[in-house]
Amino acid sequence: MDWDDIWGGLSEAAGETWDIVSSVAGETLRNTVQTVKEAGTSVETLRENAPIKGTNPDGSPIVVQNAAYTGSSAQYIQGVDNTVVLIGGTLLVVGLFYFMAKGRG
Question: The whole model's pTM is what?
Answer without folding.
Answer: 0.35
